[in-house]
Amino acid sequence: MNKNKIKYFVDVLMGVFFLILFFTGLMKWPSKTFGNTIPPGIVSIIHDYSGIFLGIIVAAHLIMNLSWIINMTKKVFLKKFELKS
Fold first, then answer.
1. Could you give the CA distance from residue 31 to residue 17 in angstroms, rounded to a whole number?
2. How far apart are CA 25 and CA 53, in angstroms?
3. Phi/psi of residue 36, each to 5°?
């Protein structure tokens, strides 16, 4: 599998886990957002594990894009220093 396909897969997984976290977070909201149709224990477990998986996937995403992040950071800071000189 080439690097771009892996990056795409990681990005899709980040989106999926973000949506799971978002909706389970709404379900855990103190008000009766969704009518409490799902037991809160299950929602908390799904929410917690989704958060762990999202953290792992975000770390993988950052590692795969580290060279781009470093290059862009250098460009931003070099432009700032050039303007002040």
1. 23
2. 15
3. 50, 45
